[in-house]
Amino acid sequence: MLSLLRLFGLIFWSVAVLSSCRTTDITSDPAHIEALRDRAEKIKSEPAGDYFVGRRYYVYRMRFWGYLREPGQEWKDSSLVVMNERIRPVPDRVPEIREGEEEVFGLDPSKLKGVKRFGFDHNYEYKIKGKFSGKKVYDPNSNMFIPEFILTDCQLINADPGWLISPLEIYNFKVLPKFRGM
Question: Number of C-alpha atoms within 13 angstroms, CB side, residue 115?
Answer without folding.
Answer: 19
